[in-house]
């Protein structure tokens, strides 16, 4: 339920946070399962948010297990269709729990659902691919053994920046792959290696880092400057706090997006109450509040071109 309620709101928020989101193969967005999306992972939780927001069908994710350790985190993340996957550094005692994540993925795929896995198994703020883990190959192999007509969709994400205001993103999907494309050997271990080798090449070709050849227009610069000025109080406070808390990690963009997503409506409510207290006419209050997200969009888009 929470997934469906948040999805349209997240789409709206991403239009401001990532005002230049280019989906290169948009025809793929209407696909129905069973599909296993295998993607690179350059920008933490923001990667999952972007992919889930643009696909029309609901998506289930395999996410880092340490994010589920607090009880309320566990409940909330599972409501967002996430399954925890644990790594060795989180403790050997947790690795046995990964079987549940793979089984949950198999169940979703057996019901013609879509599962997203970040095949590198680790997030690094780079567009160079890291060595692939075996999780995706394992899920695909189990499904094919059970006769589930699973298809694998390679996907590449590219960002113009991982920690700066004004975000441009490219999302590029490749050709759908099936069992005959990815598994040729009788020996399972050899199939896993082949699976990863073929997908590594496919995903690498799909990663496109956004670039811009033209500067922002004078009108866009003016609107962007105004948008930055009126958002200075909330943006500078939150971005400064997040930068301090996420220093030397890959979580800056994801945490900042999440914090702005929940705090921005509260900020606008407080602003409207202040304006009403000052006896500003209701129609002007409405215009001021409505202008905020519009000018935030222009501020974000202007910054993309200014920085490029």
Polypeptide structure, described:
The chain folds into two domains: 2-206, Glycerol-3-phosphate (1)-acyltransferase (3-Layer(aba) Sandwich); 218-307, no CATH class. Helix content is 54%, strand content 13%. The chain contains twelve helices and seven strands. It has helices at residues 2-17, 44-54, 71-79, 92-95, 98-110, 135-145, 179-182, 188-206, 218-230, 232-245, 252-277, 282-307; strands spanning 20-23, 35-39, 59-64, 82-85, 114-118, 151-159, 168-173. It has a seven-stranded mixed beta sheet with strand order 1-7-6-2-5-3-4, sandwiched between helices. Helix 1 crosses helix 2, helix 9 (218-230) packs across helix 12 and helix 11 runs antiparallel to helix 12 (282-307). The radius of gyration is 21 Å and the shape is elongated.
Which key features would you list for this structure?
308 residues; alpha/beta; Glycerol-3-phosphate (1)-acyltransferase; 2 domains; seven-stranded mixed sheet; 12 helices
